[in-house]
Amino acid sequence: MDNLAHMTVTLLQKSLNSSQTKKVAALALLVAVTLSTVPVKSAFADVSSATSSVLGTEVQVDVTPDSITIGPLTKDPAYTVAPTSTRVTVVRKHPFVAMTAYTSRPEETDDTPFITADGSHVRDGIVACNFLPFGTKIRVPALFGDKIFEVHDRMNKRYTYKMDFWMEGYHEAIQFGVRHADIEIVKVEQVDQAGQVVQIATTKEIAKAK
Domains (ranges, CATH) in the chain? Predict the structure, then answer.
């Protein structure tokens, strides 16, 4: 980089005499002042005329006001994040499933009460059951409306057609009691404004149902 700068200075010194060097310096100062005080388009017009008057006919000015286009910035599509929405599709239904609720009390679980059977940490929306694969997304419209639950835990092996919903509070779980309702297995997709799938949230159960 230093060699390049030295060569550039040497060439300028050979090609410009003292008078021309002063003119170039004056031009640089004029450009800086003009661009900081007037709109861009008129500034280039002033610079064009100033260049001709300072350097004479030795320098040809190619920039003209008509060659400047000022408009909105164009975003690179590769870096544009398109707005998305969630599309939920019912894959199939299971009728009249028995449902209860459980908490993370050691009496109800095991020696790792806050870790589910698939290694997830307990949280709202987790359900335990034995007849659906881990990761299956479900809804229970009659009890929870459009809320989506996901299978991450298991029950005792004797429960072959039953679901257990994790709840934080023991009294809340007791009040839930034993209920029966239809469940919906759903596929959740992120789609753009054109309806094209951006991201699919799927499970083995959903893939088998297609």
Answer: 2-67 (no CATH), 85-209 (2.40.40.10)
